[in-house]
Model the fold of this input.
Amino acid sequence: TQVHVLKEVADIAQEKLGVSCEVIDLVSILPWDRETVFQSVIKTGRCIVSHEAPYTGGFGAELAASIQEQCFLNLEAPVQRICGHDTPFPHIFEPFYLPDKWRCLEAIKKVTNF
Done:
């Protein structure tokens, strides 16, 4: 799952970049744990939303909008979304479609160097 990828990326970021990351698994999207997410964003000043759905129309857009509305003055960098691509894909190409650890690591570099 994407959570396993993100936990691995958090370990890599700690080891290679000296950056500590919080990985939050929402478990459900309705209702979603707004308080935990908002507290993390207020604490860190940054947020990366990653999911396997397409970039456009995915639930990550709702998360990003809510985070921007509630935590705008605490953000040190724009909310980043690392999602599937906006294109249909055959299942055989799923490894190229889903967010991998390298795309997620680049997002971490982007928000920490903003």
Q: What stands out?
A: The chain has five helices and two strands. The two ends are 28 Å apart (CA to CA). The longest helix spans residues 2-17.
